[in-house]
């Protein structure tokens, strides 16, 4: 992680806001969208020269207090604020408590037991790299109906590079943005992880969509919400994804998918063809 990452993130944050949104008087002479540096510096209570040095990667130290002031000036949510602090902390000795997430070396046997105890619910488990670490047969049948599972599967690599995934999701673009933003968050938490940076580099080269979305500097943590699918074997259905952190293994998320009871989607879930290999 380099100082330019912090500067790029700050510029991306500024560009998202119109002056009027944050109480800064609008100016018809603006040539570009977003807040000006001087407007943000004034709102944050820092000098323009100091803020400019942060954006240009010339400042080697930014105190937590200054970063908190910038976060307040931009009205950042907790996830975005934590990401800002993580990017800045890689340039110096301090680091926010709990910000670094280590990849688990192995998943506990109890995780497999939990998945086996939920045979009628599609369940996947992934780490912060979006590597698939566990799944039950229904989870594989729902999300990877035609994918080869002979090698370790990464959700992002499969999603961006395998054509069948593009056909599976009704709103592929929105899901792609979410996965990219999750990667951005992980990269800020694990700046020295060569495996993660290598995977990001691979996707930047092989997927123009990923490269475009990566440049937006959006961050998001795994969450819950509805997803509409066009399944090749059971047809169109909507499921609610529920992402839950596995407290016993930091960095692992369990994603269970449910459908409204009695709905056509719930009926189609039960029609998923479970392969002998998956079971």
TrEMBL record:
Record-linked InterPro entries: Cro/C1-type_HTH, Lambda_DNA-bd_dom_sf, MLTR_LBD
Transmembrane stretches, start-end: none
Upper lineage: Bacteria, Bacillati, Actinomycetota, Actinomycetes, Kineosporiales
Protein name: Helix-turn-helix transcriptional regulator
Short name of one Pfam family: MLTR_LBD
SMART domains associated with the record: HTH_XRE
Domain HTH cro/C1-type: 30-84
């Amino acid at each position: 992680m380099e100082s330019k990452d912090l500067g790029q993130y700050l510029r991306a944050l500024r560009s998202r806001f119109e002056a009027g949104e944050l109480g800064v008087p609008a100016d018809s002479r603006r040539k570009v969208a977003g807040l000006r540096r001087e407007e943000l510096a004034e709102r944050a209570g820092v000098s323009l020269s100091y803020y400019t040095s942060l954006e240009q990667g010339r400042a080697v130290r930014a105190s937590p207090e200054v970063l908190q002031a910038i976060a307040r000036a931009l009205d950042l949510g907790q996830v975005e604020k934590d990401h800002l602090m993580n990017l800045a902390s890689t340039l110096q000795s301090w680091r926010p408590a709990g910000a670094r997430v280590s990849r688990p070396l192995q998943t506990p046997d109890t995780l497999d037991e939990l998945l086996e105890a939920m045979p009628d619910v599609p369940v996947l488990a992934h780490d912060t790299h979006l590597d698939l670490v566990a799944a039950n047969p229904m989870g594989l049948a729902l999300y990877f109906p035609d994918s080869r599972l002979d090698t370790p599967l990464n959700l992002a690599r499969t999603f961006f590079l395998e054509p069948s995934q593009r056909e599976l999701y009704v709103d592929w673009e929105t899901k792609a943005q979410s996965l990219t933003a999750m990667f951005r968050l992980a990269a800020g938490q694990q700046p020295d992880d060569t495996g993660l940076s290598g995977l990001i580099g691979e996707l930047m080269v092989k997927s123009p969509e990923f490269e475009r979305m990566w440049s937006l500097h959006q961050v998001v943590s795994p969450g819950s919400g509805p997803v509409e699918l066009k399944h090749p074997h059971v047809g169109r259905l909507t499921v609610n994804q529920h992402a839950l952190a596995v407290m016993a293994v930091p960095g692992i998320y369990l994603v269970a998918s449910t459908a409204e009871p009695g709905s056509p989607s719930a009926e189609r879930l039960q029609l998923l063809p479970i392969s002998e290999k998956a079971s």
